[in-house]
Amino acid sequence: MGVIPGKVRQTVHNLAQKYRQTERRKAEKQEFEASCKRLSVNASWDDYLAAREQTLCSVREYFLFSFYEKTPEERDTYLTELRRNRFIHEIGDDESGYGSVPGNKILFNLLFGEFLCREWLNPTACTAQEFAAFVKKHGTVMVKPACDGCGRGIRLYSYAGDEDAFAQHGELAGAAVLVEEMPAQHEQLNRLNPHCLNTVRVTTYTDRDDVHVILSTIRTAKDDSVVDNFHAGGFCMAVNSKTGVIFSDGVDGQERVYVTHPVTGVTLRGFALPNWEKALDVVRRASRIMYELPKCRFLGWDIAFLANGEVAVLECNWRQGVETQIPHGRGMYHELEALKAKR
Q1: Which one, of 307, 321, 317, 306, lies nearest residue 116 by Cα?
Q2: Using CA atoms, how far apart are residues 280 and 120, in angstroms rounded to an integer?
Q3: Residues 204 and 215 sit within 8 Å (Cβ to Cβ)
Q4: Fewer CB atoms < 10 Å away: N or C end of the chain?
Q5: Where is 3: in which H helix or E strand?
Q6: Percent of residues, the chain, with pLDDT higher than 90
Q7: Do the strands 120-121 and 298-305 form a parallel or antiparallel pair, or are they unpaired?
Q8: Between the CA of residue 13 and those of 7, 27, 80, 124, 318, what are the distances in Å?
Q9: The model's pTM
């Protein structure tokens, strides 16, 4: 008698699973059709299914990487999110949440202070008086969630007297945030956009013998936002990792292309970043130290070029996003696959 209920449960489970799969496919197809309409793209559903079978891409990635106009060979160069997750698992990198060193900004700042080139404070670890003195010293500071990414939750706070600072400290203490000095940006980057700290994401893979620089991509805000992150409405350009010169137009999350910066009018292609050799040296030294920690091999370093000539590491990203490939016109999948065998 006990076998029948078990079979019934299995049948119900199979039917529910089939229903969920049908609903997911329906939503996926709706997203596909909406993207075709929004971008005025004549792409076929069967072509998307072929690309997904080959690269494990999502609908979003199919359009983000313009797979509808790429050959199967070109598509196959891209690291999609599911390929990234598989790669991270295969090399034994951290697959957890924001508790690891690269994911937790407070832990990272504690261990990598020599690369920060700026003062910072943990509101949970200081008094209200110390917090007020810090903000008063710097005038305006950046408040950042310690365990989040993609530019979410970042805001500025300006000193408006001790009482106001005391109240702000009361809100931040225990809230898993950190407060950082706003360093002055290099004059060359102010030419690009003076409203935000224009940062470069340098993607690295470290093994026992070398630090491999895979891709370099600069991000900027398209308006007067203080956040340059691609997910926060900014756009990005490809940087030549050997020379530090931008060699692509800009592209944002809606696949819009920018030949010049919409704020300053600066031509993007050919724009040279300052102190590039120093930047590479900083990234390589930091990557080598990070390699000494467990599960930290495939990383994305966010760096900024400062007015005093220094190159600051803003943060290190594990499970980094795949969007940095977009302006390069190619992906990094095969290069990473070739490197993963060596620990």
Answers
A1: 306
A2: 24
A3: no
A4: N
A5: helix 3-39
A6: 78
A7: unpaired
A8: 10, 21, 30, 47, 36
A9: 0.89
